[in-house]
Amino acid sequence: MNYGYMGKWLKVNLSSKEMSDFDFPEDLLRKFIGGKGLAVYYLWNYAKELEKKGVNIKEMDALSPDNILFFSTGPVTGTRSPNSGRHHVMALKSPLTGSIGSGNTGGTWGAKLKFAGYDGIVFEGKSDTPVYLSIIDGKPELHDASEIWGKNTMDTTKWLQEKHERKRAGVSCIGPAGENLVPCAVIMNEIHRAAGRTGLGAIMGSKNLKAIIVDGNAKPQIAKQEEFETKVKEHVEKLKENGVTGEGLPTYGTAVLVNIINQNGLFPTKNWQTGVDKEAENISGETLTEKYLISKHPCWGCVVACGRKTKVELGPYKISFTEGPEYEAIWALGGSTNVNNMGAVIRANHYCDIFGMDPISIGSTIAAAMELNEKGLIPEEDLQGLKVEFGNPDAIVELTWMAAFRQGLGYWIGEGSRKMCEHYGAPEISMSVKGLEMPAYDPRGAKGIGLNYATANRGGCHVTGYTIAAEVLGDVDRFTIEGKAELTKTFQDFTSIVNSCVNCLFLTFALGLDEYVEMIGPITGWDITADELLKTGERITNLERMILNKLGITGKDDTLPKRLLEEKMPEGASEGQIVELEPMKQEYYKLRGWEDGVPTPEKIKELELEI
Amino acid sequence: MKIYIKVFAHLRKKYPNVNDLNPLELEVNKNTTVEEVIDKLNFKLEEIHLILLNGKKVSKNQLVEENCTISLFPPIGGG
To answer: How many CB pairs below 8 Å do chains A and B form together?
Structure first.
């Protein structure tokens, strides 16, 4: 067994109900680390196997039994290294985008999977009836899930913990949205933490897999314990001393970004028609803290604690307890829709959590529906009397639950903005890339994030390469396109490392590549360097891109919605700006060693990806 | 001349009622720099990470303008 790992991955064939353990050799672990990296490696080989069997993966239905789900931790997960309770989930194909499926989540489940004795789980096939998987003290078992099919994520979690008499066990599950095969469905863990993008919950639903409960007392072994403990202490100190991880995030949560992004004029408002929300203060982190916060809620082993326990005391959206919302959810449900009503945002976000949906895609799609309706493109009979208008708090609350249960216009909200806008004859209204709704930063106000949205493998995603940390929160000129190709590439490759370790991306506000060497080295015993690590990140990004190429996704798909390329920002601190994507993209391809979005044979050889 | 101040995140501990919708009105002389405004507000320069003047990023040496809005941020991040 290798240090840092439990040395066991579980393969579950849901069709035959067969289960078997497998492991990866050390050279592969070092080349792909874990988490996202190993999942990408596994998916690449699986795609090749499917092709050999004659399956056309470009045409394959993402909800067919041929798709697979890979839950994975890494060598850092579940150790005393800070913020290491996370895990990564991937699928060969997303039902929302048709590209790769990918989600990274906090909580405690990742650590608890390792304590249960496993590094990861891969699900193949489809069960004929609803089932759930338990792994308790190293023993995996499939169980009938008919009693919990239909339950929300809160009731499912409590039911499983009581049934197994393990009140602190980790539960990953889907809600009604996943069961109803909603393409915006997520996989939730600890009720309020989501592997939240690209519709992974619908894949779980398509396999009739309701939940995975994990618990145990096993621990990963550390190669150089003393050195590791010293580095853990140093890293914790750095996190506490850093203004972002030591004060901003603990005090206000991620919602602290609302005001700074809005003041810089890149807070996408009214479905990205402007970057200024004149009443964003009402949905800011400061307002959340002052009026709605009960307490902070850290993930496993976290020293930052950006999670929020919240309530709405009065009014139509009253709720005695929930968690969140995070910055992205606040923006999508409350900013993009111009609903500056925190109570409604908290209620709609709560529905996303308990019914199991991605608030970014749901909120963004509701905003697109509001613009479609503003332009008179949604027939009256589809609106069913609901005022789908910018600024209407009832619209976001109603349409969110309607999406989970595929009711009325909610059907199209759950399908995501690309399919909805195509259905209503105005595809340009969808603010998505590769079918994934973009998150809360208008790239007309920060050009690097535009290049990242265009090139990110999973689609319109900020956490693939969070250049905002440098462009808005740091000292890099946000309007220039010079140097943005290199900035984006570096952020993307570094993030591939973080998502393979697996720990929290927020660590990177205080810890850099050298600190990641200081984690991975002592844990695994590998004499690893920063250069090797960055090359590993590049390898993972490239292999993921090679899977996209197999799915038919190339340079033509590395683009942005026309609005961002052609319509100047109308007002505010980013007024007059568009995204000059093409020159950045060409420079990026050159740096990457790609031609038209495809890694060249030379690059594939250099990264040892002739596999 | 009059200028307007907005403070964010933990800078509000000192000015709990000052926000985007309710800026602080301040009377300053011509040729006042942002640094002097920060001092007048009883903030230490090292507490301030980002300064915007009418939404545009400026340095501490920037001269303020009549009726301008100065937005002050400590180090923050998220995502």
So the answer is: 97
